[in-house]
Amino acid sequence: MNLILLGPPGAGKGTQAKLLIKQYQIPQISTGDILRGAVKEMTPMGLKAKAYMDAGALVPDGVVIGIIQERLNQADCDKGFILDGFPRTVAQADALAKVLADLGRSIDHVISIVVDKEELLERITGRRTCRNCGKGYHVTFDPPKNAGVCDDCSAELYQRDDDREDTMRKRLEVYEQQTSPLIAYYQRELLLRSIQGVGSIEEIQQKIVSALQG
Questions:
Q1: 88 is catalytic
Q2: Could you tell me if residue 112 is inside a domain?
């Protein structure tokens, strides 16, 4: 099964990807991870990517697609894959479709985890992290025993800059601008499966599995 997983920051996409890996025994392909891996392994596309990264430039779509193609050719993708973080634009979706066609493959489903913006803000702005050991908490859903103090090492808890409300609102706006055309694209292809990302982890997983089997 060849899947694309879409979802805004805080939607639980990473958690659900891990459960899908176990359920279907297929790898998760994160563009950031495979980009770093290709550079480390000095693959042909990895070397091209490194030249851009060393110059402080964005890696072009063509190189990213080439790295994804290298990854899809590996044996663990024979039964399928979960693409996470790619494509982000319609141009990337078109390029991905061509790469897959060359491999005699295609996308089976695009799962879009949908969560209300205010719910996302509550989830993310409530996160706190221990300055010493890095343990994570949430002021509402998983609070420490003593406010602002880590249960394990008694160090101070802090809010990461990425988790602040103003930063998160900007990130969500960018995600919506990027992803709206992509969602419309996959709707036209009859591949989109929209899942409400509210409820327990298990409940959301069951919604996704039901959509994939439906």
A1: yes
A2: yes
Question: What are 142's strand-pairing partners?
Answer: 138
9 in any annotated domain: yes
Contact 128, 115 (CB under 8 A): no
Catalytic residue among 123, 127, 193, 207: 127
pTM for this model (two decimals): 0.82
Domain that holds residue 180: 2-26+79-116+167-213
Q: Among 18, 36, 88, 169, which one carries the catalytic annotation? A: 88
For this structure, is 164 an active site residue?
Answer: no
- Token pair, residue 112, equals 């879009």
Q: What is the pLDDT along the chain (214 residues), one digit of tens a residue?
A: 999 999 988 898 888 999 999 999 999 998 878 888 888 888 888 888 888 888 877 788 888 888 889 899 999 999 999 998 889 889 999 999 999 999 999 999 999 999 999 999 999 999 999 999 999 999 998 999 999 999 999 999 999 988 999 989 998 988 888 888 999 999 999 999 999 998 889 999 999 999 998 7
Question: How many structural domains is the chain composed of?
Answer: 1
Angle of CA points 47, 27, 182, to nearest 5°: 80
**CATH code at position 188:** 3.40.50.300
